[in-house]
Amino acid sequence: MLKGPELAAFRKQLLAWFRQFQRDLPWRRTRDPYRVWLSEIMLQQTRVAAVIPYYKRFLERFPNVLALAAAREEEVLRLWSGLGYYSRARNLQRSAQQIVGEHGGKFPSHSEDVLSLPGIGNYTAAAILSIAFDKKHAVLDGNVARVLARLGAVRGDLRSSLGRQGLQKWADAYLDRKSPGDWNQAMMELGATLCSPKSPQCLLCPVAQFCEGRKQGIADLLPEKRKKRATVEIRLAAAVFSDQQGRTLLLPPPEEKNREPLVDHVPTLVSHLWHFPTIPVSGDAVAKLRGHMRRLRVQSQNGGLHFVAANKVRHTVTYRSITVEPFCIGVKKLPRIKGAERVPLGEITILPVSNLTRKVARAALAAAFPGKSAHS
Ligand code: SF4
In angstroms, rounded to a whole number, what is the distance separating the alpha carbons of residues 30 and 63? Predict the structure, then answer.
């Protein structure tokens, strides 16, 4: 671990590099805790380039905590639609309501208050407190962990609780106490740009002289890989209805408490948003879907129900590898299902839907109505 004058030189060089070469990102032009918070939540598991347009749109509609707290959840989810991990949006709004209820709409600046907000853990709290309030909290996200592991040539599983605790102590010791916000961002920026997971660009690195991993020639092997969780294959069939007016049927976000046993796997896969009637299948998907249609009392257009198979849609959520088989089903009347909405098949995004549901709609439109496409 670096100490004394060496640590001082390390801090000075990294901060100078960050101040000169940092990427110009919209959330770096402000210290408004609401904006810093929003960016941190959006950036979780999501690339910077994907976040920027969402961040701007979200702020245009919800410029402050009060506006977000007062919004309809559906509208918040619609603006989040396509960004994924929708629990983030729900937690964001619950937090906004808590901030209004408990702090008069002013973002709290005490660690315990920030940590009590839904969806905010140690990392996000440290980022907001340091960047917006200059509080001395060191962040430890994946980027910072990788930089620290390489700087100190740390081997072993960084995700174990011992590994994590060790790195947090290290991050705390390195924190520049005069500029904690810039320091945290500098460490993250180094990890996100030069000290990237696959090929660290040590020749350009402002702190290469302090890096033990580089000296030992093992930088690109660190952090050591952990064992991957085995992939779980999930197969689903989706019923994409189309009535005589070209409308389809979307089901409301499944709720934990009254979810149907038939659609057990579906809530997490559709991110608790609007979705096509979908069931898990094995073997003959059409036979299984027909059985489901009988239970829904679906009326056919003329005689039996005709299923048109669309191209399969593949989607991955962490360790789950999902294949959805969409079937277009022409019907005289859309079945009546409690809470379901009728929407034009080409315009399903008027409701908050997941990326997976968008892909299903596109595949169904391509199969049933070549030449049309779903808005995305
Ligand atoms: S020298 Fe290389 S491995 Fe070390 S911190 Fe810099 S970019 Fe990362």
Answer: 13
List, in sequence order, every beta strand (DSSP E) within the chain. Answer: 232-242, 247-250, 278-280, 307-309, 313-317, 320-330, 341-344
| Residues 212 and 97 reside in one and the same domain | yes
User: pLDDT tens digits, the chain, 376 residues: what are they?
Assistant: 899 999 999 999 999 999 999 999 999 999 999 999 999 999 998 999 999 999 999 999 999 999 999 999 999 999 999 898 889 999 999 999 999 999 999 999 999 999 999 999 999 999 999 999 999 999 999 999 999 999 999 988 887 766 888 999 999 999 999 999 999 999 999 999 999 999 999 999 999 999 999 999 999 999 988 777 888 898 999 999 998 898 999 998 876 554 444 344 555 566 678 999 988 899 899 999 988 888 877 766 566 788 899 999 998 877 888 899 999 998 888 888 888 999 999 899 989 898 889 999 999 999 876 655 444 4
- Pocket flag, ligand 1, residue 150 (CB < 6 Å): yes
Residue with CA at minimum distance from ligand 1 atom 2: 202
Among 194, 203, 209, 212, residue to substitute to test ligand 1 (most atoms within 8 Å of Cβ): 194
* Residue 374 resides in a domain: no
| Residue 355 CB contacts under 8 Å (≥ 6 apart), including other chains | 82, 84, 315
Quick one: which of 364, 357, 367, 159 has its CA closest to 274?
357
What CATH number did the domain enclosing 254 receive?
Answer: 3.90.79.10
Q: Is 146 in the pocket of ligand 1 (CB under 6 A)?
A: no
Asked whether residue 224 is assigned to any structural domain, the reply reads no
Instruction: State yes or no: is 40 an active-site residue.
Output: yes
219 lines ligand 1 (CB under 6 A): yes
Our answer on whether the CB atom of 202 is closer than 6 Å to any ligand 1 atom is yes
Q: Which domain holds residue 56?
A: 4-219
How many angstroms does the Cα of residue 211 sit away from the middle of ligand 1?
A: 6
